[in-house]
Amino acid sequence: MLISKYENPKEKVDKLIEYQNKMTNEGLKSGTYSSISALALMSNNENLKDIQQKIRKAKDIYKEMKSNHFFLTSQSDYPLAILLSKYDKPTSEIIEEIEYYYTELSDGPFKKGNTLQLLSHIMMLSDTENKNFMVKRCNEIYDKLKTQGIKIKRMHYPAIGMMAIIDSELDKEIEFIKNIADIINKQKRFKWTKDLNLLIAMLLVITDSINEVNQDINVIETGLNTSIESLIQAQNAALIASITSTSVVVN
User: How far is Cα 173 from Cα 168, in angstroms, rounded to an integer?
Assistant: First the structure.
């Protein structure tokens, strides 16, 4: 589905596999997140030499991420490491800035953990010198959502980061998010998945906002794809938990 936006999808599938193989050859593991990473590489239309250099730098960034947060860093961080590899900054400087966001955001309403780390990576992609402004913007979005009676969970952190990057009217976006989430929540089959419903509403509004602002589409798309994959995994985890609990009751 993600390949279908291209005029020649078959050719792009071959390119996707080629880039995935290059990543695997550099020591990154194959999987869904490596596919998203390969898509991010494809979107830049760079030559093979530049692609190879970006993959190597992404691997270095990923290794440093894991060095700082061993238990938090996983394959879900591949796509953002790929995007961060485009910067001319030394890896150590990139990691230092990520740590700034992680520390500052954790001093606010955001709880430490894997999703806060992902939010920190997304903040880096804003490519701004005014990091304090981006931290305040994330806190503002969190507070505005809470004021609307919306319960924010850790799984929503990355979506808040993408909202912060998109330069659009927050009050309008948040109103749309609440309205969409309320509509989904009223559906009988979705009434027990309110956290997931909210994430879906946030992603829908973010997707709609992309076309209205002048942003790096590759950054937003990669963030969306990563969040959607996390959403799918969360759904699978909920399903497995439900099956397990049912099995225990039956036995």
Answer: 8
Distance of CA 182 to the CA centre of its chain: 24
Classify residue 247 as exposed, middle or buried by CB count within 10 Å of its CB (0-12, 13-18, 19+): exposed
Contact (CB, 8 A) for 130 and 169: no
Quote the distance between the C-alpha of residue 56 and its chain's center. 21
**Whole-model pTM over 0.70:** yes
- Ranges of each domain in the chain: 9-250
Q: Angle at Cα 81 formed by Cα 75 and Cα 86, nearest 5°?
A: 155
DSSP character string of 26-62: TTPPPSHHHHHHHHHHHTTT--HHHHHHHHHHHHHHH
Q: What is the pLDDT of residues 14-38, one digit of tens each?
A: 888 899 999 999 999 988 888 888 8
DSSP-derived secondary structure letter, 111:
P
